[in-house]
Automatic annotation (TrEMBL):
This is Uncharacterized protein. It holds the Pfam family Cyclin_D1_bind. Pathway: Protein modification; protein ubiquitination. One of its GO terms (biological process) is protein ubiquitination. One of its GO terms (cellular component) is SCF ubiquitin ligase complex. The keyword Nucleotide-binding does not apply. The lineage of its organism: Eukaryota, Metazoa, Chordata, Craniata, Vertebrata.
Length: 139
């Protein structure tokens, strides 16, 4: 496991089914800091966002960032990974289908997969956030 502040430590990888695997940390105590959750949050904020809590003025943005920290840290690096099948390319499309990355303030990095179905474009969220989880589609 690479998560945490004490360096790499023991973890487990399990193949769940075709095109899917899970990781699980065997030493979750390595994820904790001596200064407690507040120190972990401040360190995470600095590493993930390059900012301090004092830099973030909007209360709504502070709440969203705190929710993301709580959500991501509660799993102690027990994660499941699934293969993403990309849609086929075609010269008829002005924008080729595939993965697109955007950064949206308090939501951070978001990845959307663009695909086409006839003349209809469809965006599927690959990464989620507290407001909209991964998976919902927008036409």
């Amino acid at each position: 496991c690479m998560y945490g502040y004490k360096g790499p430590h023991s973890g487990h990888i399990q193949i769940v089914k075709k095109d899917e695997f899970s990781t699980k940390c065997n030493q979750t105590d390595h994820h904790r800091m001596s200064g407690g959750r507040q120190e972990e949050f401040r360190t995470w904020l600095r590493e993930e966002w390059g900012r301090t809590l004092e830099d973030i003025f909007h209360e709504h943005m502070q709440e969203l960032i705190l929710m993301k920290f709580i959500y991501t840290s509660q799993y102690d690096n027990c994660l499941t990974y699934r293969r993403i099948y990309l849609p086929p390319r075609s010269p008829e499309y002005l924008i080729q289908p595939g993965l697109f990355k955007g950064t949206y303030g308090s939501h951070g990095l978001e990845i959307v997969m663009l695909s086409f179905h006839g003349k209809k474009a469809e965006g599927t969220k690959i990464t989620g956030d507290p407001n909209i989880p991964a998976g919902p589609q927008t036409v």
